[in-house]
Amino acid sequence: SVSAVRNISFDERAMVAGQSVSSYILLWDFRQLVRPQMLLQCPHEVLTFKFNNKKPGIVIGGTISGQVVMWDMTDAIAALNKKGNNDDEGKETAQVVPKFVSHVDHAHKRPVSDLFWLPPSTQINFRGQLVADEHLSDESHQFVTVSGDGHVKVWDIRYEQIFNDELRHIARPKHIPVEKVGSKDSKDGGLRPLWAPIYNAHIKRPDGVGELSLNKVSCAGLLNKSVTAASALEGDPRSRLLLTTEEGDLIHVDICATKKGAEDSKADDDDGGDVKGEDGGRDYVKWMAPNDHQRPCVYLAQSPFFPDIVVSVSDWQFHIWKVGLDKPLFVSPTSRTYMTAGAWSPTRPACLIIGQADGEMMVWDFTDSSYRPSIELKATPSKISNMEFLVSTASSRHHLLAVGVDIGTLHIFELPRNLVRPVANEEQIMQRFLDREITAMHYL
Question: Residue range 169-178: average pLDDT?
Fold first, then answer.
């Protein structure tokens, strides 16, 4: 699927700022590529969105207004499957309206720059504490958003159940904002719950000077426990986030951190806390690398095979970091043009793909070379804006990479076998490369 955003200048966008506009997410089906299978409607332009891994029919999106939106396509997909995918000219594209839209007063003050679903093993309550294991299930109900306003917000799609006092381990009804509707004699007392974040963490610089404008986020909790247990990440990885800022900083935070110099003394569920889930002087920032890049990061992700290894892409270079070290392990050679996107290979530990402003894709294979890309491909005639992998469950050889460009075109590439199948002992080879870079960094 693709989110379409108006390609207009800054001056033109300033003239229409705050106005509602019909925006869509286009959902494509490989069985019918003539037109989109479905359109997800939104009153504001969607800058980022994610599918729920456990329930693919549920989609969340972050808008240019700072609000978040949720769609439920389950019924629409079932209706399409029932009718069949016949390529009839008179057949109209199915449209899905949002199920939930957050209230603007409780949303971000700047556009939502990035978001992700929390894994089923992670749930956070209104105090910013991890929920006990007995309350967890095999479904994802919460997600995190970041924005240039410096806030990390945790949202729960079950806010109506919380309002009905069915999820006390998450929050109480008084923690859900409401508005008056109807009459007081109605069943709900004339109150309607508003979708607002369960918890809000305001990330500030460790020295207390200046704000942090967040633009990318990555989460260690998305990795398997067996993988994170062997990493250098301290504490519970489920609440650890990696963030980047518009100024080029790289930050490692714990959104469930306790207050500075004291443990959280609020143990009584009835004592309320802040209705908005605000933090109270917590020491969120555990590690910070200022000036990782001179411009905003366009791609931030942890390695699927090494959870404490992170790549950040911006400008003419990408950096590979080990969380906790104050300098990058590896700095790529300067590129001929801007780097605009990136993607770790989900099957090869030593393979990284970078997209550029001139439409080229560069494949960095660290089992082959670390001073130049192993493969360069002129993929598109326009600037690459995003890249996303899809690994088919039917066959490991059927490996697809979706590439979006800034003129609105979607390209699907099938990778060759040598970029899908790992070489012998590739994970050990990559680990030795990282160890050599760490040794060289300490020596210098």
Answer: 92
Please name the residues in contact with 21: beta carbons below 8 A apart, sequence gap of 6 or more.
6, 43, 44, 45
Average pLDDT on 364-392 reads 91
Distance CA 283, CA 292 (A): 21
* Contact call for residues 199 and 187 (beta carbons, < 8 A): no
Give the pLDDT confidence score for residue 92 in this predicted structure.
77
Query: In 3D, which of 382, 380, 343 has the Cα closest to residue 364?
Result: 343
Tokens representing 108? 């971000």
Per residue in 416-443, pLDDT (tens digit) is: 989 989 999 999 999 999 999 999 988 8
DSSP 8-state secondary structure symbol assigned to residue 174: G
DSSP letters of 396-420? TT-EEEEEEETTS-EEEEEPPGGGT
Tell the burial category of 273 from Cβ atoms under 10 Å away from its Cβ (0-12, 13-18, 19+): buried
Token pair listed for 217? 């986020």
Is the pTM above the cut of 0.90? no
Which residues neighbour 241 within 8 Å (Cβ) at sequence distance 6 or greater? 144, 152, 217, 218, 219, 220, 252, 253, 254, 255
Of residues 33 and 23, the one with the higher pLDDT is: 23
Residue 229 to residue 306: CA distance in whole angstroms: 11
Q: Residue 28's closest CA among 303, 370, 320, 412?
A: 412
Q: Where are the beta strands (DSSP E) in 167-258?
A: 178-180, 191-193, 199-202, 214-219, 240-245, 250-254
